[in-house]
Design brief:
Helix content: 55-70%
Protein name: Vacuolar ATPase assembly protein VMA22
Order of helices and strands: H
Largest sheet: none
GO molecular function, one term: unfolded protein binding
Organism: Electrophorus electricus (Electric eel)
Strand content: under 5%
Pfam families: Vma22_CCDC115
Distance between the termini: 53 Å
Amino acid sequence: MSLDPASLRIDQRLLYFMDQLEILEEKRQKLNALIEEGWFNISKARYSMGNKQVSALQYAKFPRYWA
């Protein structure tokens, strides 16, 4: 018993979609780890330099569409 071409295309697209979801999840995990590391580095800098020496004015400026 063979599958019709439409079923094969749907199966291929589903497999591709699942692969892309897996890649997305890996990238999200990496992004979360980098964000966590960044917050940790900011807290270390504030601790070592004093609370008033590191402020939001010194954070990197991001374009408006990232916010």
